[in-house]
Amino acid sequence: MKKAGHSMVSLMAAILVVxxxxxxxxxxxxxxxxxxxxAQEPVSTVPRADDLSVATEGPGKxxxxxxxxxxDGRFSRExxxxxxxxxxxxxxELIRAAGEVGIQxxxxxxxxxxxTMVGGGYLESKDFASVCGAARVLGADAVELFPEFQKALExxxxxxxxxxxxxxxxLGDENAKAMDRxxxxxxxxxxxxxxxxxxxxxxxxxxxxxxxxxxxxxxxxGTVSARSWSSIVLGAIGESDKHDILALLTERLSAFTLxxxxxxxxxxxxxxxxxxxxxxxxxxxxxxxxxxxxxxxAVAIWQITGKSEVSLKVLKELLTTVDYKMTVLxxxxxxxxxxxxxxxxICKELKSDDVGVREQAAVALGKxxxxxxxxxxxxxxxxxxxxxxxxxxxxxxxTAIEKVTE
Length: 406
Prior knowledge:
Blueprint (H helix, E strand, L loop, with lengths): L1 H39 L10 H7 L2 H10 L7 H11 L5 H14 L4 H8 L9 H11 L7 H8 L4 H11 L10 H7 L5 H14 L7 H10 L2 H14 L7 H8 L5 H14 L7 H8 L7 H12 L3 H10 L6 H11 L7 H6 L6 H14 L7 H5 L7 H14 L5
Helix pairs in contact: 2-3, 3-5, 4-5, 4-7, 5-7, 6-7, 7-9, 8-9, 9-11, 11-13, 12-13, 13-15, 14-15, 15-17, 16-17, 17-18, 19-21, 21-23
């Protein structure tokens, strides 16, 4: 009996060892499976208590995620706006983009905080570059900050001038108050200052007419970049009693450099139907077998004639090429609802291996709006993508497409 008893105890002990080993193995297996599963899942979008600190100085991907989460109402505007504004002037493109999205979400209510960040003036503000980045995103909503930008334009320092001009890009008609100084800055020895002025003047359109003499001078004797940018502004200003803008831009369609041809077409596109005499030359560029001018030429023909069939046919073909894919998606986004016939072709790019292409395709579909309704199921499939900025672009696109117009 004792022997049998010992044997039973030994047997029970052996069974317990085996069971323990099995349980340990199962736990280890579950742990590995969970670890593997978590590696396959997109980065969590669940709010975290440390989001504000991560958004301020966290590592790249986590910082982008946090920047997109901190606008959800858990933190005050005074806490969030400076973090987002500083991100808009960050050297990392993804962080900068996330900051811009955050500022867009907050909108005009961010302005009082930006005013506080400027404090005693642009010279005293360590955050002036960040305020400029945020103001560019807000556009006319940031008009309250214009006096500070106007003062910064009077600086003799080119970096300060460029920051102010960057901020002014989307401020609208208020910028006309700085016209005299901007005309002076078209003579700047800094090429980037000249270009920044042109970007602001383009937005003013005909209201930039006081700058026309200096722009024509730049058009005729500036560097390639400066004179090509002056083409865009001259087209935005339109007809002039003193200068034949149409003839100047049409002649530039025969320029040696691609950038001069393209920007001349942008200028002619700004002129709309008044640029009809340039259609023959633009059509030749659109049919050029080298394809380099085709995307911009297709858009210009639509802008000038008001007809999109031929333009969309050319852009659809170019969308299948690697070299022009991103350019075409950007052009289709600029065309907005007119690009609706290419919805299916754009949807194919939502499956691209390049996240940038997927994001730009989503942006284009959003710009098309309700006409891209058939794209919604494919867009929703990307809402779990691991890239936070892509998810945001997809969300914005779906909102725009499903928007109910009253």
